[in-house]
Amino acid sequence: MKNQLRHSLKAAFMAAALCMLSIPTTMAAEGNSDPAKLGVLWWQHVASIPAAQNPLFDLTGAFCTVGQRDDEWFLHGLTYPGNSLGDPIVRNCTIPTGKQIFVPFINWVCVPYPGETIPQNVGFCKDANDLTDLTSLAIDGQARNDLIERIVQKKAFDLTVPDSNAFGWPSGVFTAVHDGYFARLPKLGAGHHTIHIQGGVSAFDFYIDLIYEIDIVEPGQMPAP
Fold it and tell me: 179-200: per-residue pLDDT in tens?
């Protein structure tokens, strides 16, 4: 168990995580209303972005548009070791109108070692996420913790990672499950909005504190990528 947690730490602490998206066509056809499927899509999205452009390492919001598609818009957190509460990283992001914003806080992905089973890895992810002791969301200064929910995918899904990926893994296709805290925001109207995300696992001394300064604009007003 301890070895699994150590192995997962860098890859799994994607709170608040490209060009080559790996989204099964069957899942896309079924729609994205199921929260567990949204969690899968988020992981497939963030895993498919090379580290050099990965929003998990973004300190300004410069990579906010990388890999975005369809009606969902994924925000991102940070990899281990995170940052300090009270000293937030500020990301500026422009999003077209009509997008459903999906926000991660603390979330884990577990990939079986040789000889391990999917049910074992579901347990590994659960044990890790059970340690989460801080999730906080504010939209335009109003607390919206009511939107935060724990999302678990116990059914294995494919996770495709490129060369030079954010996890430090060899490129290829991995089988994974996930367990984490996410929020699907109400659709925001045109204009400026501030989203403040915090998450933490005190047992690992891991915290994130992020502010997204977001401008919602008509699609024709989106900046060039």
Answer: 999 999 999 999 999 999 999 9
Q: Cα(80)–Cα(205) distance, rounded to whole angstroms?
A: 10
pLDDT at 34: 78
Phi, psi of 137 (to 5 degrees): -140, 130
- Answer whether 155's CB lies under 8 Å from 39's CB: no
Which sequence spans correspond to the domains of the chain? Answer: 2-221
Buried b (16+ CB within 10 A) or exposed e, 117-137: eeebbbbbbbebbeebebbbb
Closest C-alpha among 85, 42, 63, 74 to residue 208: 85
- Confidence (pLDDT) at 1: 36
Mean of per-residue pLDDT scores for the chain: 86
Task: Report the pLDDT averaged over residues 126-151.
Answer: 98
